[in-house]
Each structure stands twice: as C-alpha cells, then as structure tokens.
Amino acid sequence: MNFVIAAVFDNYINAHVTLGRLQEEHINCWLKDENTVTIDPILTNAVGGIKLMVAEPQIERALALIATDRQEYQQQHPCPQCGSENIDLVSTPRKPSNWLGTITSAVLGVGSATPIDKVYHCFDCGNEYEME
Out of the domains of life, which is the source (predicted)? Predict the structure, then answer.
C-alpha cells in the first residue's frame, strides 16, 4: 500500500493529536521521522519535519478532516485585536534573546541554540500574540 504525506509538523505533540484524530476515523496512518525530530529538534528542517503519512486511498478524507479541525480551532480562537479567524501558529526569531542565544552558542561552541518562540499571527491585521 502506498502512503502519501497529509501534513507536516515541527513537534510531536501536534503530530500525535492529528494522528489520533485520523485513527479515530479509521484512517490508516503513521508518523515518519518522528524519532529523529523528537530526539534532536535541530534536525527538524533537515529532515523536513514529522510527516503524517496516510494511505493513498484515504488521503482526501484525511485532508478534509484536518482542514475541518483547523477551521474549528480558528473559529474558537479569533485574533484578540480584530476578531479575524485568519490566524496560525508561526515561529518568530525576532526576540533579542533568541538571537543572543544563537550567537553565543555559535561563538563559544557550547550548548544549543535558544529555541525560536511560537506565537499566533493574524494574517489580516498583523497582530502577533500568545494564547492565554
């Protein structure tokens, strides 16, 4: 049986939530590169993230469920500034602590880079915020 990529994640929590949701609907799926990304998150970009693989005959149904779940989440968590549902969780390297940690690690050759923060971004008004 052929499997195709239905979604890509940068952390195992979101990947497993979606995996469980699809398995509840009896969709044949599994996670590719989960162990690599979980053990060494720095390799996330190198391997292309954690890939949710779905049996090819079930891909349309899986994509529809993923889209529906995402839409329901966005409706429940609109932008606090403008009320838009056009939001998503994005990485933000703009905080000085992120850059300082990365530069310090590179210069001293010790430790690992400070993780990039995740914030919600509204694509209508540009507001960035953390969920409470």
Answer: Bacteria
